[in-house]
C-alpha cells in the first residue's frame, strides 16, 4: 500500500465531503438569504463563497509551477458585494472546486514532498494541501453556521439530528454487522 496514494485519495474524499456539506447548506437559502450580513464586520454566505472560490482558483491554478497567490487575484474584492443570481454564484463555486479537484487529481505521491510557494512562503505540497484543508473547512463551518441561523426552525440538519445519536449509532452498528458494501468500504 502506497501511503502517498492513500493520502491523496483521502484528501480528495475529505474535500468532496466538505463541498457536499456546504452545498447542502447553501441549497436551503434563497438568493436574498445568501446575501444576509448578520452585522457590519461579518460576511454573508455569498461573500464567503466568493472568497473560497477566489482562493481555490488562485491556489490550484498552475499549482506546482507558480505562487499560490496569483497576481490577478484581488482578495479584498472577494469580501465586497455578492452575486446577481444563484447561477452566477454556483458557476464561480463550481469553478473553484473543479480547479482544486483537477490539481489534486493530477498529483502523484512523489509530488507530496515537492516545494510550492504561497505568498512567496515555501510549503511542501503536503503542507499546502493541509493548509487548504484547514482554510476551506473553516469557511464551510461559517457557511453552515450562518445558514442555520438564517433558516432557524426551518433548518434541515446536515448531520445527526439532536436527540437521535443513539438511533444513528444503532443503525451504523447494524449496517456494519450485516457487512453491507458501504460498511465494508468504511472499515477499510
Percent helix, as a range, is: 55-70%
Number of strands: 2
Distance between the termini: 12 Å
SS-derived structural category:
mainly alpha
Fraction of residues in β-strands: under 5%
Offer a concise description of the structure:
InterPro entries: DinB/YfiT-like, DUF1572. The protein is mostly helical and 188 residues long.
How would you characterize this protein structure?
With 188 residues, the protein is mainly alpha-helical. It has 2 domains: 3-156, Four Helix Bundle (Hemerythrin (Met), subunit A), CATH 1.20.120; 159-188. It has 7 helices and 2 strands. Strands 1-2 form a two-stranded antiparallel sheet. A hairpin with a 2-residue loop joins strand 1 and strand 2 (121-124). The radius of gyration is 19 Å and the shape is flat. Mean pLDDT is 92; it is low at 183-188. This is DUF1572 domain-containing protein.
Question: Keywords, please?
Answer:
about 190 residues, mainly alpha, Four Helix Bundle (Hemerythrin (Met), subunit A), two-stranded antiparallel sheet, about 60% helix, disordered C terminus
Topology:
Layout: H1 3-27, H2 31-34, H3 45-60, H4 86-105, E1 115-118, E2 121-124, H5 125-151, H6 165-178, H7 181-187
Helix pairs in contact: 1-4, 1-5, 3-4, 3-5, 6-7
InterPro entries: DinB/YfiT-like (IPR034660), DUF1572 (IPR011466)
Protein name: DUF1572 domain-containing protein
Organism: Ferroacidibacillus organovorans
Amino acid at each position: 500500500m502506497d501511503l502517498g496514494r492513500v493520502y491523496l485519495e483521502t484528501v480528495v474524499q475529505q474535500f468532496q465531503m466538505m463541498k457536499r456539506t456546504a452545498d447542502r447548506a447553501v441549497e436551503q437559502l434563497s438568493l436574498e438569504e445568501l446575501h444576509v450580513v448578520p452585522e457590519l464586520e461579518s460576511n454573508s454566505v455569498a461573500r464567503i463563497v466568493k472568497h473560497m472560490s477566489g482562493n481555490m482558483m488562485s491556489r490550484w491554478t498552475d499549482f506546482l509551477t507558480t505562487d499560490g497567490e496569483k497576481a490577478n487575484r484581488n482578495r479584498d474584492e472577494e469580501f465586497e458585494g455578492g452575486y446577481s443570481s444563484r447561477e452566477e454564484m454556483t458557476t464561480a463555486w463550481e469553478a473553484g472546486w473543479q480547479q482544486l479537484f483537477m490539481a489534486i487529481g493530477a498529483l502523484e505521491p512523489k509530488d507530496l514532498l515537492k516545494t510550492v510557494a504561497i505568498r512567496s512562503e515555501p510549503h511542501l505540497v503536503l503542507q499546502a494541501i493541509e493548509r487548504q484543508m484547514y482554510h476551506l473547512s473553516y469557511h464551510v463551518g461559517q457557511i453552515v453556521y450562518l445558514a442555520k441561523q438564517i433558516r432557524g426552525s426551518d433548518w434541515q440538519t446536515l448531520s445527526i439530528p439532536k436527540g437521535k445519536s443513539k438511533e444513528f449509532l444503532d443503525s451504523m452498528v447494524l449496517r456494519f454487522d450485516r457487512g453491507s458494501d458501504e460498511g465494508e468500504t468504511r472499515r477499510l
